[in-house]
Amino acid sequence: MIHLGTEGRRWLLAALRELAQDRPRRFEDLLWLGFGDDWTAIRDALIREGDVRYDPHGQRPPVLTPIGEAMIDRLAAHKPAESAAA
């Protein structure tokens, strides 16, 4: 399971939404922008957890799975602790 703070969740949500719109390059760009050198660890965790599927031969772009679509819904519905207290 990926554990991220509020800012990390925002970056991940933005990246996954790009992938949902069939923009795999932008997905990877946003992971890199949001997580720096750790972006591949995030990508690999998404693959392991079944959120994203990559072609092992590199012939096709990554795709969002139904599990990844559910992740988008969870991330979008998440309310930061600061907001919940107000």
Please characterize this protein's 3D structure.
There is one protein chain. With 86 residues, the chain is mainly α. It contains 5 helices and 2 strands. It has helices spanning 6-20, 24-35, 39-48, 66-77, 81-85; strands spanning 52-53, 63-64. Helix 1 (6-20) packs antiparallel against helix 2 (24-35), helix 1 crosses helix 4 and helix 2 crosses helix 3.
List keywords for this structure.
63% helix, single chain, 86 residues, two-stranded antiparallel ribbon, mainly alpha, disordered C terminus
The biggest sheet amounts to: 2 strands, antiparallel
Count of helices?
A: 5
Oligomeric grouping of the chains: single chain
Approximate helicity band: 55-70%
Q: How would you summarize what this structure contains?
A:
The protein is built from 5 helices and 2 strands, in the order H-H-H-E-E-H-H. It is mainly α and 86 residues long.
Write the layout of secondary structure elements.
Layout: H1 6-20, H2 24-35, H3 39-48, E1 52-53, E2 63-64, H4 66-77, H5 81-85
Antiparallel strand pairs: 1-2
Helix pairs in contact: 1-2, 1-4, 2-3
